[in-house]
């Protein structure tokens, strides 16, 4: 029997503002779309937090035996600076400043993004579509919205008529904003805009002659609007109606509000059952952001190369630090907080490492089945990772009691307990046992030192054929020996 049938899950739905029972559209299957990065600069730790929140959500669905199609896009066109339609495309701007092709910018930062995800042990999504790879689909959606009388063409650009849409729908349904207030509070500053109402947003923008990112369309050579790309890619791979749409809290308005409007205008139905929003990582109480420079890069955490940091921290410690907060809470980064997280992580890993050495005996006074259910209860309650971690520390206490002979555990309980701890620590939270990685390094060092000893002996025996063979074969493996006054050392390429 799949695990999900015995573990009812509740998800906080931003649309209703309540925790709701999760009921997938297709039994046993989950379709989830998460807005990906705009690849015009390196991702910072704040971006990593949002993607990590959804990585753990993805991991938990998989753990519950759901079949998950997880789509996370790459925004490589259409994201305008300041989210205002009159600004410059973020990628085009970077390309102009650095004298690169826009696709060189995209390639550079997509590679950086992937390297970071790998370093932080993210599971790859099922599909990772790019906005520029879906221009045709976006043009088709615009045509439909125009046909419904909700999109209009002005000077080669196409806009979404928010006021017209709102006559039969609710623009503001997700963000709780009221369109009359919005209209009353905005003025069209330059009076030059092609828009009918200041709240209207671009579906297609005509490219100025100097604009390098451009595609032909029925209206002009131009480029699609940012909101449109997510509508095109989510519905292409998940259908017009799917289970979950996620992103950072700051995307709720206007991005996600506009996505709902586009979908409803097109198909007449709400696209998504559960909207999920991850909260921000802050630094000095302010949102980490690319534009303000108030951020830490993931590489800086790993190298320690930032004045805020007293030392480097590993990827798993960073993960542990982040998952100690619930995904809907703001988390403030500080050196003290991550130092404390490192201590907690090490304590947890010591217990995990001790598990295989525990010996089973009489049955225990501890109720291990009840403990395991508390771990599930935490995750079933809107993916509450801090409570799960608190339960894992309870497990650490059990391990220590058993190790000290103050408690006993039966063989069946020990097997079940070990499986559960490993599943929650590695599969669900996505932590890695870095001590074991260190252990592997220790072993490698031991083996190379043993070979150095054998080579020294061969040289003493004047068996130069053997000593050269050891040296050359190590070089072939990327291990370089260096003979010095203090003896022989080695480096690994
Ligand atoms: P962007 O590349 O700017 O589109 O952002 C990619 C993702 O990171 C979006 O889901 C944002 O909501 C999210 N994000 C941006 N800044 C932060 C932050 N300080 N903390 C958490 N998530 C963030
Ligand atoms: Zn999006």
What is the compact description of this entry?
The chain has 493 residues and is α/β, with parallel strands linked by helices.
Write a concise keyword list for the protein shown above.
493 residues; alpha/beta; Rossmann fold; Isoleucyl-tRNA Synthetase, Domain 1; four-stranded parallel β-sheet; four-stranded antiparallel β-sheet; binds adenosine monophosphate; binds zinc ion
Explain what this protein looks like in three dimensions.
- With 493 residues, the chain is an alpha/beta fold.
- The protein has three domains: 3-278, HUPs (Rossmann fold), CATH 3.40.50.620; 296-428, Isoleucyl-tRNA Synthetase, Domain 1 (Orthogonal Bundle); 436-492, no CATH class.
- The protein has helices spanning 45-63, 90-98, 102-119, 135-147, 162-168, 179-184, 226-238, 252-267, 298-303, 315-323, 335-354, 368-380, 385-403, 411-428, 434-460, 464-476, and strands at 10-13, 18-21, 29-34, 67-72, 151-154, 157-160, 201-206, 222-224, 242-248, 272-278, 281-283, 286-287, 331-333, 479-484, 487-492.
- The strands form five sheets. The chain has a four-stranded parallel sheet with strand order 4-3-9-10, sandwiched between helices.
- The model has no long low-confidence stretch (mean pLDDT 93).
- Bound molecules: adenosine monophosphate and zinc ion.
- Adenosine monophosphate binds at residues 35, 37-38, 46-47, 49-50, 247-248, 250-251, 280-281, 287-289.
């Amino acid at each position: 029997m799949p695990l999900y049938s015995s573990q009812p899950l509740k998800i906080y739905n931003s649309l209703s503002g309540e925790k709701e029972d999760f009921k997938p559209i297709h039994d046993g299957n989950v379709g989830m779309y998460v807005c990906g990065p705009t690849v015009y600069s390196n991702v910072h730790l704040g971006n990593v937090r949002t993607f990590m929140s959804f990585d753990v959500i993805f991991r938990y669905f998989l753990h519950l035996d759901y079949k998950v199609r997880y789509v996370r896009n790459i925004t490589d066109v259409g994201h305008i600076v300041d989210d205002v339609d009159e600004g410059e495309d973020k990628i085009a701007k970077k390309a102009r400043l650095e004298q690169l092709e826009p696709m060189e910018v995209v390639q550079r930062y997509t590679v950086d993004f992937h390297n970071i995800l790998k370093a932080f042990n993210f599971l790859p999504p099922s599909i990772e579509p790019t906005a520029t790879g879906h221009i045709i689909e976006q043009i088709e959606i615009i045509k439909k919205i125009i046909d419904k009388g909700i999109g209009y063409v002005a000077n080669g650009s196409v806009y979404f008529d928010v006021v017209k849409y709102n006559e039969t729908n609710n623009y503001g349904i997700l963000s709780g904003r009221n369109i009359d207030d919005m209209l009353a509070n905005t003025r069209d500053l330059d009076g030059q805009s092609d828009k009918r109402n200041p709240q209207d947003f671009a579906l297609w923008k005509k490219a100025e002659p100097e604009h390098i990112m451009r595609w032909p369309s029925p209206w002009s050579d131009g480029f699609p609007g940012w909101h449109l790309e997510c509508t095109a890619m989510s519905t292409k791979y998940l259908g017009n109606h799917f289970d979950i749409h996620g992103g950072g809290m700051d995307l709720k308005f206007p991005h996600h509000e506009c996505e709902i409007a586009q979908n409803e205008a097109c198909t007449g139905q709400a696209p998504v059952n559960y909207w999920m929003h991850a909260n921000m990582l802050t630094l000095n109480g302010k949102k980490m952001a690319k534009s303000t420079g108030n951020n830490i890069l993931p590489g800086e955490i790993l190298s320690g190369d930032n004045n805020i940091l007293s030392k480097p921290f590993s990827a798993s410690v960073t993960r542990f630090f982040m998952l100690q907060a619930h995904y809907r809470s703001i988390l403030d980064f500080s050196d003290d907080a991550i130092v404390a997280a490192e201590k907690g992580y090490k304590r947890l890993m010591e217990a995990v490492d001790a598990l295989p050495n525990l010996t089973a005996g009489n049955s225990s006074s501890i109720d291990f089945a009840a403990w395991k259910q508390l771990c599930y209860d935490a995750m079933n309650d809107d993916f509450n990772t801090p409570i799960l971690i608190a339960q894992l520390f309870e497990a650490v206490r059990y391990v220590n009691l058993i190790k000290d002979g103050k408690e006993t555990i039966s063989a069946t309980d020990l097997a079940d307990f070990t499986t559960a701890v490993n599943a929650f620590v590695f599969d669900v939270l996505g932590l890695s046992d870095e001590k074991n990685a260190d252990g592997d390094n220790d072993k490698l060092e031991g083996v190379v030192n043993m070979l150095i000893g054998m080579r020294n002996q061969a040289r003493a025996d004047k068996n130069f054929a053997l000593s050269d063979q050891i040296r050359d074969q190590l070089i072939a493996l990327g291990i370089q020996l260096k003979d010095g006054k203090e003896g022989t050392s080695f480096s690994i390429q």
